[in-house]
Amino acid sequence: MWRKAKDPLGAMTKRKKVESTPLLPGLDASPAREAPTRLAPKRLTSGTHHLRPFFGYYGGKWRDALKNYPPPHFGMIVEPFAGSAGYALRYADRKVVLCEIDPILAGVWQYLIRVKPEEILAIPDLAPDGSVEDLAVCQEARWLVGFWLNRATASPRKRPSRWMRDGIRPGSFWGQRVRETIASQVGAIRHWKVYTCSYADCPVAGPATWFVDPPYQLAGKHYRFGSEGLDFAALAEWCTLRAGQVLVCENAGATWLPFQHLAEVKTTRAGRRSLEVLWTNQAETSPGTSLDTGT
Ligand SMILES: C[S@@+](CC[C@H](N)C(=O)[O-])C[C@H]1O[C@@H](n2cnc3c(N)ncnc32)[C@H](O)[C@@H]1O
Question: Are 117 and 186 in contact (CB under 8 A)?
Answer without folding.
Answer: yes
